[in-house]
Known about the structure:
ATP binding; P-loop_NTPase; ATP-binding; cytoplasm; Four Helix Bundle (Hemerythrin (Met), subunit A); motor protein
Amino acid sequence: MCLQNKLTVAGALGFSTSTNTMYVQNAMLQPLTVQSDRDLNFIVGHRSNFGILYYFYDAMEARGKLQDFKLPPERKLRYLRDGISGYSNRCASDKRNNHRENINIFEKIDEIMILMEFNDAAESIWKILSAILLIGEISFIINTDNEADVDDMKLSSFVAELLGLDQKKFVWSLTNYCLIRNGEAIRHKYSCEEALLARDILACTLYQRLVDWIINFINLKLSVTRTLFGSKYLISILDFFGFECFTYNKVEQLIVNTVNEQLQCYYNQRVFISEMVRYLYLF
Length: 283
């Protein structure tokens, strides 16, 4: 439970652990609302990112291993949002402020992963986290055709190396996409704005897939318990986003607020109106 909690918790204004996202079914874990698509590139700067990114970076810095993972010093990374204009540390318990605690938490995670026999997979996990952080640093320039080109090829090569990808193919995927028309693949080039969005979606997807893989690995290790005791009884706890209103609001705020309205309406129907009907029948 500790490991999955560290992977899926992000901070919010006044709350250092605002996005707990798991439920337990015997010994089976399932991610419900991993906010990878919302927190890696959150539109306003009052949130820190997923805790594991800070735990990992601070621990590697303390161990002198930042260069092994191609990471720059002094937390100069966009996804860590530390010391970047527009992103302020408003919460004293913010993970951006607690370097020593972050290191201690990572040591505990390391111990858990050894206990769970992740073995060589642990190194791959750290490389993927490094790649995610570096993806946020990839920038683009406009070429003569008003299309996006990768600005820093060296940075892109680092990401490709960490992910075990062919550099040329990886760079191509950052600035190009294909549409299927009449059974044929038609290549298109991203604009700079589109390339930036695609870059962040890539980081989001990588993180989401990484968490899914880790949870599945843990479930496999704990599957004996579920086999023995079954899953006759189930308690589900929904931890959904609250109402949101920011300086800049997008479709995701519309969706979140609409779902909250529907949940509130459903709650009122079930709790108040059904109770009123019951009392009418009683009297």
